[in-house]
Amino acid sequence: MMSKLAPRNQTGEYIRPSSQFRQVIGTEAISPYPATTGRYTLYVGLSCPWAHRTLVVRALKGLEEAIDVSIVSPSPLEGGWIWNHEEEGCRSLAELYQLAAPGYNGRSTVPVLWDKQTKTIVNNESAEIIVILNSAFNEVAKHPDLDLYPEALREKIDQWNEKIYHAVNNGVYRCGFAQTQEAYDQACTELFTTLDAIDAALATNRYLCGEQVTLADVRLFTTLFRFDSAYYGLFKCNRRRIQDYQHLGAYLRDLYQLPGVANTCDLESVKKDYYGNLFPLNPSGIIPAGPDMTNLLEAHGRDRVGSA
Prior knowledge:
The protein is α+β, with helices and mostly antiparallel strands. The protein is built from ten helices and seven strands.
């Protein structure tokens, strides 16, 4: 499982492969996948930050009744994600990928946006799935007026996404899965340099792009939520905890307390899957008792930032 999770180049740097399924959902005139209630399922792992993004957007948009969710769990013995029951006649996510594309030999990752009608994968790239969920299902969403990727802010959102993906979202994995000291040192420096820059930006802006939450915040949130409990210790990202930052800590609490978001967060699954399954990083498999994350429910005061 580690060989699939942590491919690396010749210098020992962790390299994340590209996703293979990149279709979109829209009107029948432009896509074979129309936005229909009950037609699609999101396959997710609760510990995975990439899959978590899709659950957050689903909750913020109010798509719980429109799009089903099915949860897989990592199995080190089988080397991938599995169900404790059969799904579409499959017990493992690898089998589902084969059902969608016989002969497929790439990684079988979450999230997966699955079309139950055609028995195929529409998309398995989290960055694209959250864009789809933001706009394609507005006719059936409970909160269609919430636009997490508004046209006026897209350039700024994309700039933040590019910066955060390499240094933070993927950066924690580049630290944890680094195979050389040089690769680790570079990744760790880039990670905390970027976190410092984000903390400074949040001194005058409630969210990354101003006063409204966007997909850039969603993409950052799922990494920040796991940081103090998993990445800080297990992945050696231990220069500073998120809760120790003046603005990032309150920003994390702000996002966590948005309607529906806390229900997408499962800290025990995060700790179980990271500490229990990544054996080369934690040979004993012992799962730590802490940290205490009740601070996420404390007042954040972010609604006053930038109001002046």
